[in-house]
Prior knowledge:
Blueprint: E1 2-6, E2 9-12, E3 17-24, E4 32-38, E5 45-51, E6 56-58, E7 66-71, E8 76-81, E9 90-98, E10 101-105, E11 109-114
Parallel strand pairs: 2-11
Antiparallel strand pairs: 1-3, 3-8, 4-5, 4-9, 5-6, 7-8, 9-10, 9-11
Amino acid sequence: xxxxxxxxxxxxxxxxxxxxxxxxxxxxxxxxxxxxxxxxxxxxxxxxxxxxxxxxxxxxxxxxxxxxxxxxxxxxxxxxxxxxxxxxxxxxxxxxxxxxxxxxxxxxxxxxxxx
Length: 115
């Protein structure tokens, strides 16, 4: 499975960004997609995930500010990030997982929030 991320960039605190991630290749209809992030000097952490059935999971730090959605026909997941804070600055990685193999990761897209 190949993952192509887009939508990162530089934004001021309080602003918004939308990330997209398209999966291609040997995808399955039942799967999990989502986003993790890694800030400098820190471990990679969960941001949000969504199953093909629409069940979502969010990190406490982004609840109420971030929304995750997907288009199953396009195998694409979206992360709408609002009220961004400097501490949201990180490389955001797309994740795809199903029961056939180990999880797949995108190359990452940088999100920088200036104060």
